[in-house]
Amino acid sequence: MKKFTFFFFILFLALSNSFGQDKDDLYNLDQVHEIRLEFKQDNWASVMDSLRLYGNGLLKGIAKVDGKEYVDIGVRYRGNRSFRIGNKRNALHIKLDHQDAKQNHQGYQTLKLSNALRDPSMVREVLGYEIAGKYMIAPRASYSRVYVNNEYYGLFINIEAIDDNFLTKNFQSNENTLIKCTPDLSKKSPEGCKQNIFSSLEYEENMECYKSNYELKSEEGWNDLASLANALYKNKNNGDLSKVLDVDATLWMLAFNNVVVNLSSYSGQYSQNYYLYKNNHGRFVPMLWDLNLAFGSFKNTGDGSDLSYKELIKLDPLLHVDNPYKPLISQLMKNPSYKKTYLSHMRTILYDNFMDNSYEQRAKELQKLVQQAFSNDPNKTYTSGDFERSLYSTIGRRSKIPGIYSLMNKRAKFLKKHKSLGAIPPTITEVAVLGRERYSNARVNDFKIQVKTANKAKQVKVYYRFRSVADFKMVYLKDDGDSNDEAKGDDIFGGMIASNGNETIEYYVVAENPLSVGYEPANYMFELRKASLKELNN
Fold this sequence. Notes:
Immunoglobulin-like, 7-stranded mixed barrel, 14 helices
C-alpha cells in the first residue's frame, strides 16, 4: 500500500509542477504575490522575538496566500545574521502544515520569506536562483507583498523551501540524508575539535565535531556526512570521488559561486549556505541557499580581510585550488578532468548570462515588477533612491554594496580574457543513432551512436541509461574507422551500446579537447536525447 501512496504523491507533484508554470503558480515571476498573516495577538512582533530567542516555537495564526486561506498555520522569524530584536522587517518562516499535515498551497507546505538583507536592488536572490536553476537543482524564488493584521509588513522574496516536497520533486525520494551546511557562528566547536572550519567538509574523527557546524534535517545521516568528509580527506592522488559525490553538480555550484562572486557560500569565509542531499544512487548532491549576498555583497574569502571592489572584479577563477581547508574545491581540482570541467562550466555561465548583458535586462525587468511594492514598503531598509541606483552604483558608505551591473560588467570582461577560461570547447555538430540500413531486413538490436565534432575534439563519451530513475553509465566513442564512425581521424566518433533487452535509451554526449569540454544537449542536466529500437527499425 505504501508503494501506491508514494506513486500517487509523485503523480500529484508532477501535475503540480506542470500546472505550476501558469500565472497562479506561487513562484511565477510575472506578478508580485500577496501573503496576509493574521494573529490574535496585537503584540505579535514581541512574541515572535521571544520565540526566536528562546527556541523554535511558532506563533499560531491564519495565512491567506494569493487569496486562499489556511488556518492553524505557524510562523516564526528566520535567519541568523539577519534577525534583529525589534526589527520591523525580520525574515519569516511560515509553516502551513503546522497542525494539519495535509495542508499546503499548490503542494508547498513551508514558505521561506527573505528580507533581502544587504541587497538594495531586491534582485540578487531572484536573479541568482534563476541563473543557477539553468544548470543545477536549485530553489525558485518570487516576490510577495506581506501583510500582518492588515498592515503592510513589506516586500519580501519567497524562496522555495528545501523540504520533502522539493526533494520528492527533484530526487524522487525524501527519506535519505539531508544536511544544511550553515554553521551557527555563535557556537564554538567542542574541545578537541578543529576550530573555525565551519561547513567546509574537513574531516573530524569525533562525530560531535560535525554537530556544531552542520544541521541534520533528516532523521539520520551523521555517519554519511563523516564518510563524505573522510573520502575528501583520503583523496590523495586525483581520486575519483564520484561514488560518494555528484561531482558534476558540485562543479556547477562552485563555478556559479565564483562567476557571480557569491562568497556567502562554500567559496567564502564560512563555507556555508548550501544543502547536501544523498540521492538514490548514494551520492551527495549540493544545493545553493541564501543568495541575498551574491554579486559581491559579501566580500570575504576566508583569507585575510574583505576584498576591495577591484579584487571582487578580479576574483581568481581558481580560488582555493590549493587550499587544504576547502577540500570540496582543492580535492576536486586535483583531478585534471574535473578541473577542466569546472572551468568549462564557468565559461558556460559567463557566456550564457553575462557576455551579452542579458542579466542586466533581466534585473531591470525584476526591478520594474516590484518598484511600486518596494516604494510602498513602510519598513524598507533602503531608500527608493538606493533601489533605483543599485544596479549601477555602490550603495552604502560602510557596507559598500556593489552595483550588480557595475561589478559584473567588469568581471565578465576580466573572465573573458583570463587564460583559464580562454579555451574554446569542442563543438558537437551532429548526433545520430543509426537505424536499419535502407532495403535491409536485418533488425537493429543495439544502439549505434555516431557523433560529428569540431574544434579538435580528442575524446568523446556518451552517458546513458535505460530508465529515467537509473544511474548513468558511460562509454567512450572512437574515431578509428571501425566503430560505427566513418573514416579514421575525420572527427566523427562512433560506438555501440548493447540494449540488453531494453527498448529505449536516454543519453547525452560529452566531447573534450585538451583544455575544455562541450555537451550535447547543452542543458543535459535537465534534458536528454532519446532513442527507441522501434523507431530505429521503421
